Amino acid sequence: MKITAPGPVRMGLVSIIAAGLIGAISNLLVNTLPAYLTIVAHARGFIESEVGFCGTAEVGGIALGTVLSAMLPSVVARLNWRRTVGIGIAVLITGNLLSVYITDLYPFLAMRLVAGVGAGIALAVVYATFAEGDAARSMSMANVAQMAVGALAIPSYTAITQTHGVNGLFFALAGLGVLGLFAGWSLPAMSAREADAEAHAQHASEKISMAGWLAIASVFLFFIGCGCVYAYLGFMGIAWGSAESSVDQAMSMMMLASMTAAILVAVMGSRFGFVKPLAIGFAIISIVLVLFLLGKPQASFSVGIALFGFSMSFIMPFHFEAVTKVDDSSSAAMLVSAATLCGYAVGPTIAGFLVTPDFGLVNSAGLSFIALSLVTLIHATRMHKIDTQRLGMGAIPAVSM
After folding, report:
1. Which domain holds residue 269?
2. What is the CATH number of the domain that holds 221?
3. Sign of CA dihedral 128, 134, 140, 143
4. What number of CA atoms fall less than 13 Å from residue 104's CA on the CB side?
5. How does pLDDT run along the chain (401 residues), one tens digit per residue?
6. Where among 132, 166, 199 does a domain terminate?
7. Domains in the chain: how many in total?
8. Could you give the CA distance from residue 222 to residue 375 in angstroms, rounded to a whole number?
9. CA–CA separation, 343 vs 337, rounded Å?
10. Cα separation of 100 and 171, whole Å?
11. Residues 73 and 148 in one domain
12. N or C: which end of the chain has fewer CB within 10 A?
């Protein structure tokens, strides 16, 4: 079946900026979840356990929307990327507007799930857009933008809700969605593979290879490990003897280190490939977790979690690039977002069953999942190399121990 789309593929700075803006809008509530949930809880009168359901609805909705886009490539192809983003953002706007008029818990959760699905549909196309160019650089630029927007949004939440209440916040979120609608028309209409297939009256297969699934699984495993540790970093600092104020300062340092890593990757781009940067990143994060296991470093806690945040932010864009090199389908790129969010959701849940006074089991679980992620990625790249050699194509370098 021939794929049709209005206009040629355009991948330039404007497209990358537009994709970054849409990603920042779609991921805004996830990146500012603690502040957002606190405001919603006070405004709607939800108790702590109900607030947790709100967070699950937001994150779960985005993951579900991303999976839907990745699993229905023929639908996305018929609509084209721009229209798909438009539909996703329209659903997001509708969910935010209707949230103004809903105060009961379960209808509110359903509406937040709907808004999340819309955000996830748009976010899936954003990831596919990043895969069209320098994947690592594009992803890191988007990470910097999301951190910056999140840092500006948190004080804005307070100002808006003090003046207009929580309903004013949902109206503001809907307004940001309108901005995303306009940005969507600066995205490519389709991937380069689809455009090439159309030019030759062929169909571009979006079926994910086995190596691609393994690479996506490695992302999922990595963020399970990171989520295990990240959720309890503050508790670890206090348990190991740091004052609460010192822990807060250390968390701020970690955010700064994360942004520094994202800027560094944006400058580096893909000029060194993904193998060496991933080796460096995995080495740093593993050493930090081993030190957490052995030393319980009160004096160097700030340095330790800063390195943890730096390495996690450094690994993420190169991990994404690895997926796109192992499998060049848009569906694989789209599923990276879902794998990331699901890993972050599953990690803290697993860690909750492993909490001990010294958090040894939590850090052990985090290190184990991260190591398993690396092993899975190594196997994925080797499988890809074998497949491409069998087909007589140029293979990417396999990761080796």
Report:
1. 210-391
2. 1.20.1250.20
3. negative
4. 3
5. 333 434 444 456 788 888 889 999 998 888 887 778 888 888 888 876 687 788 888 888 998 999 898 888 888 888 888 899 999 999 999 999 999 998 888 999 999 999 999 999 999 888 888 887 777 888 888 888 888 888 788 888 888 988 998 899 999 999 999 999 999 888 887 655 555 545 444 445 568 889 999 999 999 999 999 988 887 887 888 888 877 778 778 877 888 888 899 889 888 877 888 899 999 999 999 999 999 988 777 667 888 889 998 999 999 999 999 998 998 888 888 888 889 888 888 888 888 888 888 889 999 999 999 999 999 999 999 998 887 777 665 555 555 54
6. 199
7. 2
8. 11
9. 10
10. 8
11. yes
12. C
Residue 191, domain member (yes or no): yes
242 and 380 together in one domain = yes
Determine the Cα–Cα distance for residues 350 and 361; give it in Å rounded to an integer: 10
Question: Measured between alpha carbons, how far is 192 from 204 in angstroms, rounded to an integer?
Answer: 10
In eight-state DSSP terms, residue 398 is P
Q: Which of 282, 88, 307 is nearest to 80 (CA)?
A: 88
User: Would you give the DSSP letter of residue 392?
Assistant: T
Identify residue 366 by its one-letter amino acid code: G
Q: What's CA 1's distance to the chain center, in Å? A: 33
The pair of three-digit structure tokens given for residue 326, joined into one six-digit string:
């192992």
